[in-house]
Amino acid sequence: MHPAAGGRERLRRELGLPEWTPLLLYAGRLAREKRLDMLLGSVARLGRGGAFHLCLAGGGPMEGKLRWLAAELGIAERVTFCGWVQHEALADYYAAADLFLFPSPADAMGIVLVEAMGAGLPCVAINKYGPSEVVTDGVTGFLTAFDETDFSESVQRLLDNSFLRQRMAGAARTRARDFDLDATTARLVQVYQDTIRETERLRWHAAYPMA
Predict the structure, then answer these.
(1) What is the chain's mean pLDDT, rounded?
(2) Which of 34, 91, 110, 149 has its CA 20 to 30 A from that of 143?
(3) pTM over 0.70
């Protein structure tokens, strides 16, 4: 997945964001189980004086309620609902962003986390299930409890420290390579080979128990 030439600059212009404004990104369905209410609550806790913007790239049944909640929290001007985004166009969003936020506590994998890391985005995610297997806490981002304060503090830490963001960006790109097709296929083949060898060993011992 590669951004279009000038994709970062074009998308930031569309959002009305200068280059120096940190862009926080979520990509996925706007559904109840994604717990984007927690994400908005966390963003509302970020330093009021700091410049940042949140982009929600996706659509779904919770959009109306989330728009209402953003207004109630006083952050409507800092949140853009981008609607459904074609998968190939997501590369421009990753390129335009500075951090990727994933508040879901129930995802089995979170492919968007791998994509975001491949684009060099440090991630803040919940320390459960699939995300905990993808994000390396303190290396490629932060894993937090399902708690607005904990989540917000991790985001704020990255916003306040550009050196930390750059270090994690490089680590995220490296980690994402572990999930590419060749690497995943090689691990799957190794699992099958190990299973075959172990099955043959057990059969041999069953046939020759005293050997």
Answers:
(1) 86
(2) 91
(3) yes
